[in-house]
Amino acid sequence: MTTHNKFKITVPATSANIGPGFDVLGMAFSLYLTLDCERLPAGSGLQMTYEGEGAKDVPLVAEKNLITKTALYVLSTYGITSLPPLKIHVTNPIPLGRGLGSSGSAVVAGVVLANAAGNLQMTNDRMLDYCLMVERHPDNVAPALFGGFVASFLRELEPEELDPPSIPRSEPTRNGAPQPPTPITDIGHYIQLGWTKEIKAIAVIPDFEVATEDARAVLPDMYQRADIIYNLQRIAVLTTALSRTPVNADLIHKAMSDKVHQPYRKHLIPGMAEMLEKITPKTYPGVVGICLSGAGPTILVLATENFEQIAAAVQDIFTSQPKGGIKSMYKVLDVVEEGAKTEYFD
Description:
The chain is of the alpha+beta class. It has helices at 66-76, 102-117, 124-134, 138-146, 159-162, 212-217, 225-241, 249-255, 262-265, 272-278, 307-319; strands at residues 6-16, 25-39, 46-52, 86-92, 149-154, 188-193, 200-206, 287-292, 299-303, 328-333, 341-345. It contains 11 helices and 11 strands. The chain is globular, with a radius of gyration of 20 Å. The two termini are 14 Å apart. The relative contact order is 0.18. Residues 65-148 form the GHMP kinase N-terminal domain.
């Protein structure tokens, strides 16, 4: 088994809950979390540095950093009690807590780090099982791991698989919570969908955070049948329409409507209701669709042209909010076909 002295891990940012695809649809973007890793002599310990989003607040202790904590969990299930001596430099341009999959990308990076550092030789499907033990939502981790535009689901577990619990039943593991056990196999299932390269994603990122737990808390426990049918009809159309050329902007825009999560979360994102109403293919040529990215607060606009003008229109709505408005930035991103990867160097 060859052991390389240096390796680089790259994981894309993601967006989930695309339009009517709540907890189903996600996509990978051309914005990457990277880990530059170098093996050190025995007894050297871990040397970790970090630059980018959250640099002032992200812990660099192996047991507390989400990337290395995830890697330690994976290694522990293989009987390896610590990370091998490594120098790791993390570069993270993915905004934290903004609905662009920062935690999911970190979890994927941790699993891939364990695979590379421990020479575990896991398949991507097995790595998905581990990802889902820490980050419960496959619509974030599946596109980060596999790339592209992805539909996913969690299989229903048999009673014997739930006792003792083999998979988390809540949000990602918090400090002090027990580590989940070795995962069973085939927890999550996915398929990569077609995507026309004419469509890019404009991520308009406001200067505030929305915690996933808070965004989940506002959702109802029960839904009206009509609202579920509404979403099912649109997700069936949307997943095909986004793969076709020429782009049918009017159809995609209509198919990106949602009644399952956005109506309940709009009060968490000032200006969101106005954006969904005003940013359309008719009012801004080039617009294909608009939705909340993940749990928010980022607004995702799919478009084929006029990216800067469309982004400015969304930013203007943020700026016009009461009490001085909300600052924001934007990124024009490609949906990328390749997910997490590891490059090895001698």
